């Protein structure tokens, strides 16, 4: 049985409008700001082939949700939570409870969208959290999209940087051994690899989730890591890698918009501090 697959990536920002502008400069097609009707938070979405980025602003979210997310800002803006796909939130709630995790109520993430033909519509997405107490921002959550046609919209997946999808999600941890049991339970399967530098899972589409040590992350990303490091939080998601159809076109866009970037293997990297706290890697991988 394959492990769970990545659904979307929540990048906590404050305020939201400058983050929208930042990701547009990076070459992404960023959708207009929308409000989660039942939660009070707001977001702006970047559609990819099989996943999406969510620039997330707490806004009018209730105190309970603020209390979970706001301490993340001690380390600056950045990835604060990642969702895996679920076939049944109710079944997953019972499974994770039985495994000893603390689960939270199912929430509606309904928001208004505009279809490519200009007609309005609403998403019908739901999710639930299962926060960890230690390494809180290495927690995951599960999501279901009852109307996937309002979430995965091909017409909005065309980006000036030629990005197609996320191929690798990277966490940096002060002790990956503390994280392995949680990730194994949530991913519902054994890791693909383990070692002294951490562990990784490879999902059904070939997408990689990697948990690595501070030393290994520093060796790989160096000055492109978030300047605040872990901010005393123990562990954080710190990098996203993207399959990119044309590195030349991506580089040209970044240069024309004065976005600093460096060579990274056969691809490019943009420092976290220029991408709302996310070390951003563009790689020449067939889409």
What this model shows, in words?
This protein has 287 residues and is an alpha+beta fold. The protein folds into 2 domains: 6-156, 2,3-Dihydroxybiphenyl 1,2-Dioxygenase, domain 1 (Roll), CATH 3.10.180; 163-283, 2,3-Dihydroxybiphenyl 1,2-Dioxygenase, domain 1, CATH 3.10.180. Helix content is 18%, strand content 33%. The chain contains 6 helices and 18 strands. It has helices at 16-25, 63-69, 89-98, 180-187, 214-221, 247-256; strands at 6-12, 34-35, 42-47, 52-57, 78-85, 107-108, 112-114, 120-122, 125-129, 140-145, 163-173, 193-195, 198-202, 208-213, 235-244, 262-264, 267-270, 279-283. Strands 2-3-4-1-5-10-9-6 form an 8-stranded mixed sheet. β16 (262-264) and β17 (267-270) form a beta hairpin. The mean pLDDT is 97.
């Amino acid at each position: 049985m394959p492990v769970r697959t990545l659904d979307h990536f929540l990048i906590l920002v404050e305020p939201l409008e400058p983050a929208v502008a930042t990701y547009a400069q990076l070459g992404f097609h960023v959708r207009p700001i929308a409000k989660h009707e039942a939660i009070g938070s707001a977001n702006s979405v970047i559609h990819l082939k099989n996943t999406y980025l969510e620039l997330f602003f707490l806004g009018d979210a209730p105190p309970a949700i603020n209390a979970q997310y706001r301490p993340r800002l001690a380390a600056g803006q950045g990835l604060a939570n990642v969702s895996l796909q679920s076939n049944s939130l109710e079944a997953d709630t019972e499974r994770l409870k039985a495994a000893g995790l603390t689960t939270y109520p199912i929430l509606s993430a309904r928001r208004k969208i505009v279809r490519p033909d200009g007609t309005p519509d609403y998403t019908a997405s739901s999710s639930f959290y299962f926060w960890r107490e230690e390494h809180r921002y290495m927690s995951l959550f599960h999501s279901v999209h009852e109307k996937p046609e309002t979430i995965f919209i091909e017409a909005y997946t065309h980006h000036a940087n030629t990005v197609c999808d996320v191929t690798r999600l990277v966490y940096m941890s002060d002790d990956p051994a503390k994280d392995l049991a949680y990730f194994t339970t949530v991913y519902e399967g054994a890791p693909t690899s383990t070692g002294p530098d951490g562990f990784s899972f490879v999902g059904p589409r070939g997408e990689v989730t990697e948990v690595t040590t501070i030393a290994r992350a520093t060796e790989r990303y160096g000055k492109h890591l978030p300047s605040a490091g872990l901010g005393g939080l123990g562990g954080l998601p710190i990098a996203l890698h993207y399959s990119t159809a044309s590195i030349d076109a991506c580089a040209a866009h970044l240069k024309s918009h004065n976005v600093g970037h460096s060579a990274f293997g056969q691809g490019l990297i943009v420092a976290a501090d220029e991408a709302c706290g996310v070390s951003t890697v563009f790689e020449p991988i067939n889409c």
